[in-house]
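Exercise 7. Predict the joint structure of the components listed below.
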Amino acid sequence: MASTACFIIVSRNDIPIYEAEVGSAAKREDAAQLHQFVLHAALDIVQDLAWTTSAMFLKAIDRFNDLVVSVYVTAEVCMYLIFTCRMACLNWKQLLILLNPLYLPGSRVTSSHFDTKVRALARKYL
Amino acid sequence: MADPANTPLGQMLLDEITPVVMVLGTPLVEEACLKNGINFVQMLSPFCAFNNIDVPVRTASDQPYRLQKFKLRLFYASDIRQPNLEVARERLKQLIIQAGEKDLSELSSDPPPTNYEHNGSESENLPSWFQFFNKELVRSASFSDHEAFDHPVACLLVVSSKDEQPINQFVDLFNNNKLPSLLNDGAMDPKILKHYLLVHDNQDGSTEKSARILTEMRSTFGSDCQLLCINSSEDGLVEHHDDPWALYKSDASPGQNVGCFLNVDDLNEMKDIMQDLSTKHIIPYMEQKIRVLNQQVSATRKGFRNQIKNLWWRKGKDEVADLSNGPMYTFSSIESQIRALGDYAFMLRDYELALSNYRLISTDYKLDKAWKRYAGVQEMTGLTYFMLDQSRKEAEYCMENAFNTYLKIGPSSQQNATRCGLWWVEMLKTRDQFKEAAMVYFRVCGEETLNSAVMLEQAAYCYLLSKPPMLHKYGFHLVLSGERYKKSDQIKHAIRTYKSAISVYKETRWSHIKDHVHFNIGQWYANLGRYDLAASHILEVLACSHQSKATQDIFLRHFLQIVQKTGKTFEVPKLQLPEINISFLKVIFEDHRTYASATAASVKESIWRSLEEDLVPSLSTARTNWLELHSRVLPTKYKESNVCVAGEAVRVDIEFKNPLQIPISVSGVSLICELFGSSDETKSDGNNLAGEFQNDDGSVETTSGEMSNKSSSFSLSKVDFSLEGGETIMVQLTVTPTIEGILQIIGVRWNLSGAVVGFHNFESNPIKKRSSEGRQRANRSGDNLKFVVIKSLPKVEGFIRPLPTSAYAGDVRQLVLELRNHSECAVKNLKMKVSHPRFLNIGSRESLNVEFPACLEKKRSEHNNVRHNPSNMSQPVFLFPEDTIIKGESPLLWPLWFRAAVPGNIFLYITIYYEIEDTSSAMRYRTLCMHYNLQVLPSLDISFQVSPCPSKLQEFLVQMDIINKTSTESFQVHQLSSVGEKWAISLRQPVNTDFPSQCLMAGQSLSCFFMLKDQRRSGTSEDKTSLSQQVGSVVGLGPQGTIESLFDTSSSPLADFHSRERMLEESSHQSDSTVDFILISRPLKSDPDSVLDVDIFSLLGCSIASTSPISWHVDGPRTLYHNFSSSFCEIRLSMTIYNSSNSIASVRINTVDSSGNLSESTSPQSATSSGNQVGWHDVSLVTDIKVTSDVLGTRSIKPPSLDSVSSFVWSAASSTRVQIKPMSMAKIPLQICAFSPGTYDLSNYMLHWNLLLPDGEVNLDEGTRQSAGTCQGYPYYLTVLQST
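Solution:
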């Protein structure tokens, strides 16, 4: 499988607050929207599963063709949707954002620092 | 769960898995039938389904049961073969296209809002053609040789009575090669039930011939012969109210009246014949066949022995089987028989029997690796489980197994897989497992895009129907489906699916998804020529800042193309391009307060308010009496709204932002306003409210392009601009009402790229308003943009010229304030207040025309310069003279003096208050606010050091260090003045010696020394006469020529500025102990005439400010000759002590002959006593000392720490005490004896002083000063020489 991944943090009410397209695979024109579609569709499954299990990391809960969706659900009812399961280490980073008193729930994460960190991690694991 | 037979799947199975009757007919039969517009099979089909047949059936078991529903399927023998894939595909495509055409009418309108919360009836949402489509899809897999239920059970041989030799025809029909391959290649038993039917067309004559043929047939073929008479109606006008053929005549031409020659008798006959065929022939035949087969199966396969044998046999056979699709089974093989038994049992609803046989055979097929047959059996097992309504898990497992097996076989079984999948889906749907059903749908879709599009759409609906509805999945699958519809050129279907998906993604913030959906719909609509709809969809994606530049460009270009094709300007409320930052919306209007410039309007409200405090009459004072009040104050209902004046523009600042990376051009930006004339105003409140409602509707009207008659009541400004990618622009729009009334600003409109008109209404948004915040109570958002327009008023415009934008610190300039009033109505009672009086000094009218800086020069004669009036300073408000009136075209000019007091960015705020003479106007007064921003650069950095002169009591040495801090500017130091009568300053050295160039270049520094004399104090001393020679208190520093034209620092602007500075300092310092210097320099520029650099310094007199209130001075001879050979030398000295404190000081003088220890112990104290001017003494010491005797001089310079006894002693008492009154001095005689010639340092004495405070007085004001202390003596050098 081409090493591509899409990483999205979704806050309450299905609002994506952070998006990152990572990976070395040649970018398809419509990759971004396909990834969004797949991850968005996976939210249904997440919403079902999140209440039935105590686990925070839900591995490979949904798939579309070769895109496998894994989710990390946190207490803030925020979740990441990722195409690989090895990026769980991002957890604390997201917590950092949530701890930031200036963070408005639902607003986008625009910190470039966070972005570079995520991409660095992605490079490490992909 | 309900009876499985009543579920959709059950119905489907009861319809589809029924006995097949093969029809073989002669062409003449067809001819007779086609008179009715239908063929023979179609004619009979409606009568093949029996809902209440009530036939007893006895299969393998002895217990009979009754069948209620039964159905036969009639097929021509030519149709009993596997359908051609291409044909089937084409038929499906046609079906879809038809459905698409049907939906087109609904396309233009929005789909009805789907209520996801309660979707009780599932069929409501589902397009109805799905069912037909699925049926067709299932049928495309029929007549496979691996399943027995599609194998004909009976054969219906039909011959017309017109046929020649009908008996031979019957025989020929079955014997020729037209039989389906199923019978020919041995997949099924060719010995099937035959039924002979003679069709007689009543129009061709009587039935006698037919009856004869029938008897002949009966004798030949037995009892299975019947006669069917059709076309009994003579005229062919029979109308069938409930058309029985509606479901079956797919290819009949619509115009023809189907069954027009068939009357009721014909229909009844057909019904009877078919029922007879079913009950008397087919069912008994099937019963019998089941029994026969069952016996055979029992004999060969049932029982332990048979099982073992079978297993053994299979094992042995295993090696032989090498066919890819498993071994070929003929109808006579036991496997085929078991399968047939199962299918027959299934068709006769003996599901238990069917299931047992299916299970039996499935292991065999598996062992034989006959995968297709295995899958088929698994499929049937699953369905049988379902019909038995037991073991759901088993049923699903079987279906899945079958499905997977079919898929595994490859593309040849794709049709079977699809059929199996559809049945599986139905099974899951029946059990409300919609989620799983959707997944199966998803798996069903194969390579074929069109089919998979339909499958995906059905999957989407399954997600919608699942509980809770999975909307995300629903949307996603709709989009997937739409994508495939598009690929197979079914644009209408694509639009339909996408439009349904929009309802899911309506509020989403998943930007890429939204863009994709809207952009595609837009494009497809454009393909269909529905440009208006297309434009409205693409509009949604225009503000796509997250997309790449290329994508943004594509979006915008498409949009503009589509809009062009619509051929009209497109009007869009809330157009997202460019973005309007509504929180930055500012409304600037002028009511009481008017602004001289745009920058003044943006100044914080509180600044103006604080400036206006003293100017504007407060409400209570403004009210002269209550009668007058009523006439002036606006009608109470408008109290909440803002006031603006007719003829004066209301300005709205709007921030436009281009969210894209590509440039966009915006033109014709203007406000949308409404103005109700004052005639409306007189109406009652109720009418006014109605008028407001009209506003909302009217806004559309106003935006529709022309301003009609409204243009007369106000005028709008239009702005064009273009925005680069990501650029933000602040646009100032104005509306100028021309008549009185109520002005409402509704919104803003603009034209994007000349194609789209966007408008944005402000009303719904809370607006931050600059000028009215705080001034009004309880601002409702709706009223923010509502103005009461009042009659035009005089408005004073003012500006200051030529106020520089940047100046060097200390620059003094002459400025003129110009006030104009264009209206004929005069204004009076002008007042003015300046935020920084340090910087701006209001001159007097006389100084308007004086020449600067010459006016400041000292006049020899009585100078008529305006004397500085200190009382002016205390007044914060400047009142213009009473008679000042501004009216018409004559401006009021008033001089101002400007001085850049401190470096930095300075914001100057000036408020001018004026009253309107015309008392009938709605406002009595207005204020003019002016705002200037200027930058003051540092220029000369000047520091002073003042130290008391050790040798003179009332004199101070002043060291002035000037550094030119500018980078380019050169300054010429002109003069230094000390302010006030008290101080006199004189140059210690001629300037020219240390300052030859007379000009201070950039970065250069200069030090000068001055002598400062306290004139007041010295007034008591004896040398009063010498002071009169001082040049006042000014020292010229410039070149010789300019020394004559010294400036008078006591004249108006300079003195005013000085006193401003003094006021600033006063809080922290005692005025008595300070000396103020004014340094005047001129920049060496090409036009130095207008600028003067004045630095005002306020410094403490050192001696006074030091910690000790006691100062003293030793007088005596400096050099004397004495003949030491005769006697020692007695020298008299006198010490003058001055008490500068306010209380009596007691001073004790201790003389110490041995100075060694003393100096060490007192050295820290001496440091404190000399205050902040440390080190000055030493410098002067070094420069002043004159060693006349080498031998002794070296000795005397030696530090006194040497243990030697000094060569002089203080004679007289070693301690003297005096009391000195405040501010007075006392003289004390001193005497020393010297024993040898030499130079003596007479500093080895101490002064102990003690302030005697009056009883009870608390020393408050001089808290920092000590009340007692000790001072080390000053060095005093005395040279005694041996006289000759």
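Discussion. Chain A has three helices and five strands.
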